[in-house]
Amino acid sequence: MSNTRHSKVLIIGSGPAGYTAAVYSARAMLAPVLVQGLQPGGQLTITTEVENWPGDTQVQGPDLMVRMQDHATAMGAEIISDYITALDLSNRPFVASADSGMTYTADAIILATGAQAKWLGLPSEEKFKGFGVSACATCDGFFYRGKEVVVIGGGNTAVEEALFLTNFASKVTLVHRRDSLRAEKIMQDRLFKNPKVSVLWNHDVVDILGDDNPPGVTAVRVRNVHSGAEQDIPCAGFFVAIGHTPATQLVADQLELHNGGYVKVKAGTTHTSIEGVFAAGDLTDHVYRQAVTSAGMGCMAALDAERFLAEQN
Ligand code: FAD
Ligand code: NAP
Asked: What is the edge-to-edge ordering of all strands in the sheet holding 203-212?
């Protein structure tokens, strides 16, 4: 069996952008191939309730993504469980090498690799990852039943994580480096009303303290950003929710980037700096970063790819 697979359109990524691009390009009879990557369904698979997907007052993130995958498959997209390790955009057809040993070639590529969680970069954070330090409350919250936890961040993710953790933890302290949150007001309202949550304003986390044997977190050391005064907050779990960085490893040295590493697209389109390569979703969007905007860009990318291929013919 050949280990090379050619398609007119190769979609890399299986978040809302990738699956929407797959639905549209399948309906355009382009027989797209979509490679899912290590997180099939993308970022929404690590959350619980999504309340801003139009048409669903409330839907579980993982359920929504399964529905999107089923939709793309039903329209005729081929969904492949694989991970792209290298991409050569220097010639057409473009060449994508995958972890499985397969090589995917394509006349057009839609990049939808999304974003990955940011970390603080502390050595102690690295040391206790998986032993009390996490970037996913949905995945790990259950382990902190009846225990105290600390969350750092001030955006929607941090507030959502903090609220979710109140289902398990006895106390949740949200540490934020400023004196106001950037999370949506409705989320802030829920946070401030929750008796299990306390917010520590104007503080950074400077160290994570814990035991070595068995490994486990016992406290986080925080510092007042104005006075420099330090204190330790006892906790068994520490959740980092300080945002995400675009997943541009495959293309960072091939495509034009901007705004700290996001793939640059021509305004109002999904055209990147290489003809035939389109980008959609969180890897190109430093402003909105929502499921619905990512899906919208996935649609645009499929339409842009369709027009590009028609012009080539
Ligand atoms: P992502 O969802 O990031 O998906 C990226 C995909 O690319 C993944 O499938 C990954 O496996 C794949 N990939 C990456 N690298 C490779 C590779 N080398 N090879 C193959 N595949 C690869 N937004 C909302 O609108 N409402 C919400 O309620 C909401 N809640 C959120 C809760 C949390 C905890 C988080 C983290 C985010 C939330 N967001 C929410 C934001 C939303 O999830 C993102 O805006 C959206 O998922 C971005 O979609 P995307 O398709 O661009 O990429
Ligand atoms: P974000 O909006 O970028 O917020 C990151 C937060 O972390 C900010 O409050 C920031 O502080 C703080 N921060 C960043 N670096 C830090 C550091 N080194 N130390 C301490 N704090 C640090 O990221 P996000 O909350 O992950 O949200 C990402 C996108 O997904 C947003 O567009 C958001 O709307 C979307 N999202 C939506 C929902 C929803 O609709 N329900 C849920 C989750 C996410 P400053 O405020 O000082 O910059």
From this structure: 203-212, 215-224, 230-234
Are 252 and 235 contained in the same domain? no
Q: Which of 217, 240, 263 corresponds to the end of one domain?
A: 240
Contact 300, 280 (CB under 8 A): yes
Angle, helices 291-312/16-27, rounded to nearest 10 degrees? 40
The last residue of a domain, from among 240, 271, 290: 240
Q: What sign does the CA torsion over 16, 19, 24, 30 have?
A: positive
Length of the chain: 313
Report the pLDDT value the prediction gives residue 179, as an integer from 0 to 100: 98
- Cis amide linkage into residue 214, ω under 30° from 0: yes
Kindly report the pTM of this predicted structure. Answer: 0.86
What residues act catalytically?
A: 136, 139-140
Residue nearest to atom 31 of ligand 2 (CA): 289
How would residue 138 be classed by pLDDT, with cut points 50, 70 and 90?
confident
The number of the ligand nearest the C-alpha atom of 12 reads 1
Query: Distance between CA atoms of 88 and 90, rounded to whole angstroms?
Result: 6
C-alpha 241/C-alpha 53 separation (Å) is 22
Q: What is the phi/psi pair of residue 171, to 5°?
A: -150, 140
Dump the DSSP string for 202-267: TEEEEEEEEEETTEEEEEEEEEETTT--EEEEE-SEEEE-S-EEE--TTTTTTS-EETTTEEP--T
The torsion angles phi and psi of 119, rounded to 5 degrees, stand at -120, 165
Domain hosting residue 92, numbered range: 4-116+244-312
61 and 83 part of one domain: yes
Ligand 1, atom 14: closest residue by C-alpha:
113
Q: Using 50, 70 and 90 to split pLDDT, how confident is the model at 1?
A: low
